[in-house]
Model the fold of this input.
Amino acid sequence: MNNEDIFYAQYLVGSNNKLVCGVDTAIKALRPNARYDLSVSGGNFNFTRWEDETDTKPPTKKEIMEELEYQNKFIEHWQYFVDRAANYPDIVVIVNNLWEAIDSGEIPGKGTKFYQSIKEVNEKFPKPEGEPPVRPTHEE
Done:
């Protein structure tokens, strides 16, 4: 996960370290500076209030649905990363294990506590196969 993906994931982090998405997260990702009120009825989106300091227009239903589809794919691909981050040992423990391995001459390798503590989490939350999804582009 690169910095851009980590930044994007901030729109999707819900409770219990799970990534979640919905119409609201799609709109926030598309128009991060906007403040709005939205009415959804019968599959139609109606912005009853729209304020955006960058003067962008509200996203279309098509944009929102494409973003929502992307977010679902993003979650499917990247949830393992969030699960790993939530389950790795505390950073102080990791650094201490690394220090002890270096100090004892083991230099981080497969036999160290450092390696094992990371390996256990990585095996519990395996990285999915394939490439991550590509976010759709929208012309305004």
Notes: The mean pLDDT is 89. The beta strands are 34-41, 44-52.
